[in-house]
DNA sequence: AGCACGCCGACT
DNA sequence: GTCGGCGTGCTC
C-alpha cells in the first residue's frame, strides 16, 4: 500500500479499524463501519458518530465496539464524523443497554433511543435547493405544474425540506415529484445536520486589560471622560459590581451585560465605550440551572428513624437491596437525605428515582435546599437542552447526585454508590410504549449490580414483588411504623352509598357522612381532598330510550364527556367529537351522562358547598409545564378549600391543613379485571389517605362504597399491610400469578380482526413447543379490543420465575418471531413483547 | 422504522 | 399509456 506520494505505508499501522455502531433503528444488531485514519487515535466505545445508513439517511450512533475484523459479506462504509472528544456513554452503560435489550426482548437501538436525550441525537432532514448550474432557459424537459410550484417556492425560499414540499402541494409525500426534479437536474438534494443542543449564552463585558494592569491609565481615562458623564457612570457602575482595584483577576470574568443595560444606563454610551476599546464584549456559556448553595441538613432524626437508619446500614452488610416499608408520614425523606449525604461524602454518586408526578412537588424543593446545585434534576417536563446539561453535568462531575424520573437510570454515572427508589410500588416506573418496556426499579437494581452499589426501595405500600423478595430474604427489610412528630394516623370511615340511597340521604352522589365531614372541615378553615380516578365529566353518554352508547370510531371504548369545551373525547387515541343532541340510533333526545369524572364531581361539590373555593387537578388542568405547580401553590397558600383530583393528588403532597380525604367511588378501584386490582386499591387508598392529618390534627378519610363489607376495606382500615399481603398471596399462589411466576405478555396488532387473532393463535402453537415449563393463556381479545383502528389480541405466558426458564424461553421466542415474520400471512402483524407487564 | 424497488389497477 | 397504490426486502 502506498500513500499519496507513493511511499510505502507501514503494514502494522495500515490494518484498518472497524467500529460496531449502535443505531436508533429497530434491528437487533450493531452495524460495522470503517474508522477513518484520523479518528483512530481518539475514537473509543461510547463516542457519538455520524454515519450514513441506507442510501439517504444520516444518523447519530454510539460506538459499541472497536475491532479489526473486516466484515465478510459487505463493504463497510466509513464513519462520517466523530462528534465528541470524550465518550458520552461509558462501557458500563453499554453493558447495561445490552442487558435491557436482552431482558426486555427489544433491540439495542431502541434502548439507545430511550437512553439518550434527543438533543444529543443529530437529525438529518432532507432538503432541496435549486441546482445553481441549471439554466432555466428553453429546457429540454417539460416542467409539470406541480414541479413549477416547487421551483417557484425554491426561488423565493432558497431551500425546502421534503416535508415542506408535501405541504405546499397538499400531498402526503412529494417524493416522486422531487425525484423527477432531481432526474432533470433542476434541484439538488442534500442532508443537513442539526446539532440540537444549544448551550445558553450570556453576553458579558469587561474592562480592557490595559486599564486593569495600569492604574494610571484608568485615572487618565476618568479625566478624559469628565465631559461625558454617561460613560463615566457606566464605568463607575461596573467598578461597583466588579471591584478590580481590589483584585485584578476578577475583571476577566467581567459582568453580565444585561445587569448594566437593565439598570437604566445608556445603551449607546456603552456601545461607544466598547467601540473605543475601553470595554470589551465577550460571550460565556452558562448553565441553565441556577447557582444554589448547599445547606447540610440539620434536621435530626427521631429515635425511631435513627434506629431504621442503623438497620438499613446493618442490612447492607449482607444484602445489596433493602426495602424500607415506612407508613405515610413516617419521614422516609429524612432518611434518604442522611444516606445521600453519607454516600456523597464517601465520593460516590447517588441516584434518587421518583415517580413523575411526585417530582415537581415539595420533595425536590426540600432536596434543593440541602444539596443546592450539586444535585441535578432530571424531569420529563424539562426541555431537552436542560436534560443534555444534566447528562453533561454527570460526566463532568458537577452533579454527584441526581433526582429524576424513570429515564434517569440512563444517565452516565460511573461510580454509583446508592440508588434510592421512592414509592417503589408506583406503576409509572414501568414504560409501556414504545420499547424498551423497562421497569426503572428492576433495571436500577441491575444497574446497581453493575456498579456494585446499594439500592434502597421505599414505600408505604410495597409492591408484592418487592415484599416477596424481602420475605424470601433476597432483600433486607426495614419497617418504620410510626408517623414522624405528633402526627396521628387518620381515622377511616366507610360510607355506604346504597344505604344512603335507600334512606334518601344521597345528594349528588355524595353520602351524608362525606358531606358532614367536608362541612366540618370548611367550618374549621381546614382543607379537603377528593379523590376520583377518572378525569372528564362523565365516562359515557347513554340514550335513556334505547340504551345506545357513543363509542370511539377508532377504539373499542366509549367516549368520555368533557364539559370543558363541550366535547366527547377518547382517552385512548385522543379522538374528539361534538356532543350529539339526539340519539343516532332511535332519534330520542333523552341523552344522559352516566358515571362521574373529576369535572362532574367538581360541579356537584360546587352545588353542595356554594361558599367553598374548589379546584380540580387532573391531566386536563396540569398539561402545561407549570400547571401542576401553580395549582399546588394555590392550594398550599390556602386559596383553595376543596381540591378534586385523580391519582395526581395521591403522591407526595404534604399539606398540614388537609384534614379530610374523600374517596368518591372506591369500588371502581377494586373491581378492575386484573389480578393486581386488590393490591392497587390498597395502595391507592392508603396513599391518598396518607395526605390527611399530617400535622397535629387527626385526619378523617371517608371511603364511599356500595360494598363496605368487602374484606379489602377491613385490611385498609386496620392498616395491616402484612396481613393483606398474606391473604392476597394465597390467591396468587392458587392461580399462578406474579410474584410467584414470571409473566410475559405478547400482543398482536392488526387492522383485520381475524388476522390479529389467527396470528396470535399461530404464535401460541409455536411457543407451546418451547422446552420449558410454562402456562400460556389466550389468545384473548384485549381489554380494549381495538385501539387506533388496530385489533388487539393478547397471549399471557407464565414461567417458572427461578432457574433457566425465562432466558431459554426468550431465546426461543426471538427465533419464533423471526419465523413468523417470514410467514406471508402475518407479515403485517405487529407483535409487542412486554416482559413483567404491570 | 423508513425507504427503494417492483407489480398491478384506475384514470387520461 | 402513466400515475400512484401498496407489498417486500434491506439497511453496515
Automatic annotation (TrEMBL):
SUPFAM superfamilies: P-loop containing nucleoside triphosphate hydrolases. Zn(2+) 2 binds at residues 552, 555, 570, 573. SMART domains: DEXDc, HELICc. Zn(2+) 1 binds at residues 543, 546, 583, 586. It catalyses: Couples ATP hydrolysis with the unwinding of duplex DNA by translocating in the 3'-5' direction; ATP + H2O = ADP + phosphate + H(+). GO terms for biological process: DNA recombination; DNA replication initiation; DNA replication, synthesis of primer; double-strand break repair. The keyword Metal-binding applies. Residues 578-732 form the Helicase C-terminal domain. One of its GO terms (molecular function) is DNA binding. It is an enzyme of class 5 (isomerase). Its EC number is 5.6.2.4. Residues 313-480 form the Helicase ATP-binding domain. InterPro entries: DEAD/DEAH_box_helicase_dom, Helicase_ATP-bd, Helicase_C-like, P-loop_NTPase, PriA, PriA_3primeBD, PriA_3primeBD_sf, PriA_C. Initiates the restart of stalled replication forks, which reloads the replicative helicase on sites other than the origin of replication. Recognizes and binds to abandoned replication forks and remodels them to uncover a helicase loading site. Promotes assembly of the primosome at these replication forks. PANTHER family: PRIMOSOMAL PROTEIN N (PTHR30580:SF0). Component of the replication restart primosome. This is Replication restart protein PriA. The gene is priA.
Amino acid at each position: 500500500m502506498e500513500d499519496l506520494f507513493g511511499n510505502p505505508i507501514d503494514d502494522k499501522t495500515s490494518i484498518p479499524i472497524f467500529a460496531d455502531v449502535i443505531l436508533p433503528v429497530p434491528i437487533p444488531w450493531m452495524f460495522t463501519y470503517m474508522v477513518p485514519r484520523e479518528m483512530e487515535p481518539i475514537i473509543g466505545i461510547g463516542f457519538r458518530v455520524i454515519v450514513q445508513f441506507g442510501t439517504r439517511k444520516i444518523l447519530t450512533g454510539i460506538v459499541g465496539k472497536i475491532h479489526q475484523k473486516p466484515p465478510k459479506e459487505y463493504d463497510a462504509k466509513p464513519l462520517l464524523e466523530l462528534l465528541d472528544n470524550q465518550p458520552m456513554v461509558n462501557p458500563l452503560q453499554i453493558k447495561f443497554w445490552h442487558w435491557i435489550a436482552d431482558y426486555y426482548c427489544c433491540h439495542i437501538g431502541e434502548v439507545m433511543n430511550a437512553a439518550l436525550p434527543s438533543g444529543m441525537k443529530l437529525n438529518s432532514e432532507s432538503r432541496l435547493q435549486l441546482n445553481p448550474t441549471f439554466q432555466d432557459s428553453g429546457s429540454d424537459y417539460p416542467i409539470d405544474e406541480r414541479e413549477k410550484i416547487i421551483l417557484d417556492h425554491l426561488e423565493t425560499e432558497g431551500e425546502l425540506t421534503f416535508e415542506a414540499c408535501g405541504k405546499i402541494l397538499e400531498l402526503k409525500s412529494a417524493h416522486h415529484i422531487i425525484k423527477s426534479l432531481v432526474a432533470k437536474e433542476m434541484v439538488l438534494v442534500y442532508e443537513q445536520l442539526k446539532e440540537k443542543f444549544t448551550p445558553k449564552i450570556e453576553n458579558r463585558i469587561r474592562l480592557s486589560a490595559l486599564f486593569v494592569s495600569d492604574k494610571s491609565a484608568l485615572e487618565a481615562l476618568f479625566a478624559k471622560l469628565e465631559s461625558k458623564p454617561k460613560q463615566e457612570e457606566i464605568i463607575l457602575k461596573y467598578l461597583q459590581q466588579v471591584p478590580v482595584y481590589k483584585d485584578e483577576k476578577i475583571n476577566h470574568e467581567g459582568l453580565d451585560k444585561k445587569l448594566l443595560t437593565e439598570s437604566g444606563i445608556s445603551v449607546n454610551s456603552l456601545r461607544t465605550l466598547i467601540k473605543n476599546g475601553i470595554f470589551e464584549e465577550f460571550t460565556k456559556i452558562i448553565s441553565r440551572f441556577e447557582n444554589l448553595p448547599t445547606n447540610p441538613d440539620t434536621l435530626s432524626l427521631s429515635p425511631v428513624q435513627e434506629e431504621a437508619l442503623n438497620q438499613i446500614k446493618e442490612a447492607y452488610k449482607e444484602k445489596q437491596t433493602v426495602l424500607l416499608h415506612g407508613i405515610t408520614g413516617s419521614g422516609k425523606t429524612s432518611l434518604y437525605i442522611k444516606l445521600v449525604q453519607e454516600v456523597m461524602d464517601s465520593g460516590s454518586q447517588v441516584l434518587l428515582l421518583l415517580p413523575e408526578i411526585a417530582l415537581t412537588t415539595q420533595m425536590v424543593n426540600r432536596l434543593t435546599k440541602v444539596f443546592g446545585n450539586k444535585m441535578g434534576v432530571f424531569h420529563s417536563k424539562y426541555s431537552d437542552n436542560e436534560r443534555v446539561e444534566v447528562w453533561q453535568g454527570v460526566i463532568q462531575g458537577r452533579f454527584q447526585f441526581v433526582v429524576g424520573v424513570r429515564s434517569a437510570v440512563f444517565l452516565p454515572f460511573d461510580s454509583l454508590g446508592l440508588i434510592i427508589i421512592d414509592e417503589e410500588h408506583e406503576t409509572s416506573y414501568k414504560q409501556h410504549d414504545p420499547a424498551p418496556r423497562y421497569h426503572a426499579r428492576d433495571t436500577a437494581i441491575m444497574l446497581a449490580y453493575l456498579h456494585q452499589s446499594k439500592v434502597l426501595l421505599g414505600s408505604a405500600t410495597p409492591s408484592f414483588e418487592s415484599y416477596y423478595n424481602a420475605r424470601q430474604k433476597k432483600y433486607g427489610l426495614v419497617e418504620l411504623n410510626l408517623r414522624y412528630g405528633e402526627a396521628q394516623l387518620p381515622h377511616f370511615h366507610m360510607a355506604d352509598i346504597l344505604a344512603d340511597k335507600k334512606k334518601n340521604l344521597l345528594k349528588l352522589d355524595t353520602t351524608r357522612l362525606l358531606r358532614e365531614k367536608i362541612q366540618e372541615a370548611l367550618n374549621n378553615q381546614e382543607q379537603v381532598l377528593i379523590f376520583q380516578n377518572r378525569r372528564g365529566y362523565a365516562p359515557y353518554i347513554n340514550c335513556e330510550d334505547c340504551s345506545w352508547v357513543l363509542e370511539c370510531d377508532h377504539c373499542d371504548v366509549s367516549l368520555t364527556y368533557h364539559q370543558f369545551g363541550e366535547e366527547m373525547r377518547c382517552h385512548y387515541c385522543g379522538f374528539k367529537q361534538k356532543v350529539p343532541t339526539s340519539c343516532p340510533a332511535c332519534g330520542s333526545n333523552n341523552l344522559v351522562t352516566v358515571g362521574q369524572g373529576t369535572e362532574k364531581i367538581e360541579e356537584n361539590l360546587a352545588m353542595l358547598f356554594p361558599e367553598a373555593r374548589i379546584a380540580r387537578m387532573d391531566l386536563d388542568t396540569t398539561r402545561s409545564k407549570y400547571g401542576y405547580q401553580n395549582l399546588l401553590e394555590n392550594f398550599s397558600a390556602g386559596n383553595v378549600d376543596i381540591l378534586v383530583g385523580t391519582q395526581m393528588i395521591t403522591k407526595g403532597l404534604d399539606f398540614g391543613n388537609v384534614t379530610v380525604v374523600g374517596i368518591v367511588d372506591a369500588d371502581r378501584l377494586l373491581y378492575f379485571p386484573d389480578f393486581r386490582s386488590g393490591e392497587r386499591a390498597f395502595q391507592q387508598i392508603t396513599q391518598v389517605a396518607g395526605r390527611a392529618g399530617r400535622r397535629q390534627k387527626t385526619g378523617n378519610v371517608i371511603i364511599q362504597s356500595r360494598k363496605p363489607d368487602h374484606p379489602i376495606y377491613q385490611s385498609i382500615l386496620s392498616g395491616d399491610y402484612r396481613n393483606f399481603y398474606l391473604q392476597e398471596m394465597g390467591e396468587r399462589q392458587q392461580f399462578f400469578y406474579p410474584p410467584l411466576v414470571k409473566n410475559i405478555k405478547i400482543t398482536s396488532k392488526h387492522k383485520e380482526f381475524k388476522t390479529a387473532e389467527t396470528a396470535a393463535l399461530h404464535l401460541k402453537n409455536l411457543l407451546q413447543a418451547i422446552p420449558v415449563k410454562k402456562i400460556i393463556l389466550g389468545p384473548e381479545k384485549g381489554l380494549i379490543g381495538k385501539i387506533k383502528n388496530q385489533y388487539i389480541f393478547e397471549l399471557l405466558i407464565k414461567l417458572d420465575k427461578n432457574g433457566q426458564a425465562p432466558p431459554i424461553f426468550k431465546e426461543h421466542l426471538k427465533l419464533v418471531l423471526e419465523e413468523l415474520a417470514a410467514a406471508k400471512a402475518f407479515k403485517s402483524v405487529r407483535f409487542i413483547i412486554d416482559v413483567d407487564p404491570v
